[in-house]
Write a structure and sequence with these properties.
heterodimer; A: 333 residues; mainly alpha; 2 domains; 74% helix; globular; B: mainly alpha; two-stranded antiparallel sheet; 72% helix; 3% strand
Chain lengths: 333, 287
């Protein structure tokens, strides 16, 4: 005893952390040298990365394959619009409140759909999201079917001029992506992360070793809901216009995110990053082809699930034995 | 407002939902597969029917002669070539592969047919009705309902009276032991999805005569099928019929209150039943 140590970081993971911090600093300075078009693209990449990390945490680690995360994007967005437009709260305070409100809403939702197992859970989350969308489109204070708009008076509270607003909104997107990714990273490094990895690998075995799978899953579901909600609020703070179809869109907030995670590599932290980058590169070249582009994404995702289940990052990690995030434990002498 | 009339109409609509649900129920019962592309396959059947009508001008019901075998072969090949590979390795592969197939089908249909609403014209039968005890009963909804009853009765016979049915039940109970007894599971699973697709084809054509459809119409059909299966109880075909009727009646009551409430009322009924009776009315299968 005493001769072995548990190591978390590897040489690559330390180097990668340095690169990551450097990259963040470069991105944070973008408003001073990049155009507003670049800022919009980077902030879109940032929130999609965060959505992908959250879905990966749910499906890749906790085994909760949800196709209803658009529910929390919608709730978060409506929280922002209602609190800032109707109750005159500062929009950034309303944005922050989207997290606790989504967390509160997610608990009764979880108690209901956790009765469904496996793939039926997936369809159950979808029904919940559909139900919320239909319900919201009947509620008059939320603008019913036609939706809501953030007025210039509300938006000016963030910053009086357009350039200042763009800068603040851009930094918020970076901050949210970093905070969400850090939460996922720290969760996976904690003892909950150990439980989650065990659940990912075998739910039954982890249960028999004393992991409270129900509570662990419930916690993950609620944390993910809170983070997805604040992302939803942020996304529509940028768009300024919210309708039930846009807020609860399964294609924009769930389908695309699932493709990113599956193609990049589910069940790793690196996978969603790779998947997000691939998605944006493909979109840059193929977006003009509309439906063909979605068909191609579908074919690639199916092929990856059949031939390389750990995605593109899985292939890289096996080939070079490379792990960039120190969430694993190594036994060394 | 005549509530008895509404309940009868909703119950008959449940026959269509039961037809949606049979394919989903069969693939779960036999392969333990939850086919996310199920709704899109229903809509695909309707479009194949449309193509047959455009090419030959026959009555929509006559297209079944083509649509049913085409969908059977498609189901067999889909299971044999793709889905059998996903049976090992847990929950994610089958779920995400069928999810990918769903997106592919929807966009291929959009590419091929555009986003327009379509409908298959079946003539006078669509609107004719008769009166019984003061209630107006639509002929076409009654035919659809009767079709659902006949299909379920036929499947019960298949499962409990034939050698193939015995093989299906054996594989469903214990796939490995069934294989040891000489059953070729890969062939059997492929037959399973093929048979499920026969009912999907039927559901697609009967749906297309009753309502408008477009390439994006699949997911809501999957949800209706899923709600009927869960309300009825996993694995019970007669339960599925009851589940479809509960869903249809809830929707009819919702629609009577206000047209915007139709679908929402169905979802709410489903969620209430999930809350008070999570395993449905006739639970059979444990997953």
């Amino acid at each position: 005893m005493g001769a072995f140590r548990v190591e978390r970081a590897t040489r690559e993971s330390r180097a990668f952390a340095a690169v990551l911090i450097l990259g963040m600093l470069v991105l944070a300075s973008l408003p001073y040298w990049g155009g507003s078009g670049n800022m919009r693209l980077i902030s879109e990449m940032a929130y999609y990365l965060a959505l992908a990390q959250l879905w990966n945490l749910l499906a890749g680690y906790a085994g909760l394959v949800s196709v209803g995360q658009q529910a929390f994007v919608g709730i978060g967005a409506y929280t922002l619009f209602y609190l800032s437009s109707e109750l005159d709260l500062h929009p950034l305070l309303a944005l922050a409140l989207a997290a606790p409100i989504c967390a509160l809403m997610s608990i009764p939702m979880a108690l209901l759909i956790f009765r469904l197992r496996g793939a039926y859970f997936a369809v159950g989350t979808w029904v919940l999201a559909e139900t919320l969308q239909l319900a919201v489109s009947l509620i008059t204070p939320l603008g019913a079917g036609s939706g809501m708009t953030l007025t210039p008076a509300v938006v000016r509270q963030i910053a009086p001029d357009r350039a200042g607003r763009e800068m603040i909104v851009y930094w918020i997107s970076l901050a949210i992506a970093i905070v969400v990714s850090t939460i996922v990273y720290l969760l996976l490094r904690s003892k909950h992360g150990l439980a989650l990895t065990a659940i990912r690998d075998s739910e039954r075995a982890s249960e028999s070793l004393g992991v409270d799978t129900y509570r662990t899953k419930l916690m993950i579901y609620v944390v993910t809901a809170a983070c997805t909600g604040i992302l939803g609020a942020f996304i529509f703070l940028q768009k300024l216009r919210l309708s039930p179809e846009a807020g609860f869109s399964i294609n924009d907030w769930t389908v695309v995110v699932i493709f990113m995670v599956v193609i990049g590599g589910i069940g790793t932290l690196e996978g969603p990053i790779i998947g997000m980058l691939i998605y944006f590169v493909l979109r840059e070249f193929l977006a003009d082809y509309g439906t063909w582009y979605l068909i191609l994404l579908g074919v690639v995702a199916v092929a990856i699930m059949l031939r390389a289940r750990e995605g593109i990052w899985g292939l890289v990690a096996h080939k070079f034995n490379l792990h960039l995030f120190s969430v694993r434990r190594y036994l060394t002498r | 407002m005549n509530w008895v009339q509404i309940v009868v109409q909703g119950g008959l609509l449940g026959g269509l939902y039961a037809l949606f649900a049979i394919g989903l129920s069969l693939s779960f019962g036999i392969m333990r597969l939850v086919n996310i592309a199920h709704g899109d396959l229903i809509v695909l059947s309707a479009y194949i029917g449309l193509m047959v009508i455009n090419a030959t001008g026959v009555h929509p019901v006559a297209t079944l002669i083509v649509v049913v075998p085409v969908m059977f072969v498609l189901g067999y090949v889909l299971q044999r070539a793709l889905l059998n590979q996903t049976l090992t390795g847990g929950l994610l592969p089958p779920l995400l592969v069928t999810f990918g197939i769903s997106v592919i089908i929807e966009n291929v249909l959009l590419q091929g047919f555009g986003a327009d609403n379509r409908r298959l014209q079946a003539g006078a039968i669509e609107t004719s009705s008769f009166e019984i005890g003061g209630l107006a009963v639509g002929v076409y909804p009654l035919i659809v309902f009767a079709t659902a009853v006949v299909c379920i009765a036929g499947l019960q016979l298949l499962f409990y009276r034939t050698a193939l049915g015995r093989a299906f039940r054996a594989t469903s109970d214990d796939a490995e032991t069934a294989e040891l007894m000489g059953i070729d599971n890969r062939h059997l699973y492929a037959l399973g999805l093929g048979i499920a697709m026969v009912f999907t084809a039927l559901a697609g054509i009967l749906m297309a005569i009753r309502t408008n459809f477009d390439p994006a119409a699949g997911p809501i059909r999957l949800i209706f099928a899923f709600e009927a299966v869960i309300i009825g109880g996993l694995g019970s075909l007669w339960g599925t019929l009851l589940g479809g009727m509960v869903l249809g009646i809830a929707q009819a009551i919702g629609a009577a209150l206000s047209p915007t409430w139709q679908i929402l009322a169905g979802h709410i009924a489903f969620l209430i039943i999930l809350l008070v009776r999570p395993s449905g009315f006739f639970p059979r299968t444990r997953d």
